[in-house]
Amino acid sequence: MAKHNDTGTWGEEIACEHLISLGYAIVERNWRMGHLEIDIIASRGQKLVVAEVKTRSDKDEDPFEAVDNRKIGNIVRAAEAYVKLTDTPLEVQFDLFGISGKPDDYILEHIPNAFEPSLRTYR
């Protein structure tokens, strides 16, 4: 496995442990539909958390730089597909995790409810 894949997997594990410590149950990891992917899907009560995890091995790098409007749109589309496919009645919340550093020295940033999906109009 490539080093960046190892780093990403490690970051997702840290994010899962954090969500579990907050009382969430991990429902899915790396859920895919076509080219769309959700890193972590977790639930607690009536809330379904769709989490995007960005991990960087350098503590000076900002992992959130990789989350642009296109990425957010893909996360929202993936969440819509998941909710429709699983007929999930829960309220969806979009969280971001930024993890930078190495396993023995890292920074974890968790932004709950980081963004709201934009409204789309159909003609």
Description:
It is built from 2 helices and 5 strands. A hairpin with a 2-residue loop joins strand 2 and strand 3. With 123 residues, it is an alpha+beta fold. The mean pLDDT is 91. The protein is 30% helix and 41% strand. It is globular. A 5-stranded mixed sheet has the order 1-2-3-4-5.
Give a summary of the structure in a few sentences:
Helices cover 30% and strands 41% of the residues. It has 2 helices and 5 strands, in the order H-E-E-E-H-E-E.
Features:
30% helix, 123 residues, single chain, alpha+beta, 5-stranded mixed β-sheet, 41% strand
Layout of secondary structure:
Elements: H1 3-21, E1 25-33, E2 36-44, E3 47-56, H2 69-86, E4 91-102, E5 105-115
* N- and C-termini, Cα separation: 45 Å
The number of helices is 2
Number of strands: 5
What amount of the residues lies in strands?
Answer: 35-45%
Spatial strand order of the main sheet: 1-2-3-4-5
Structural class: alpha+beta
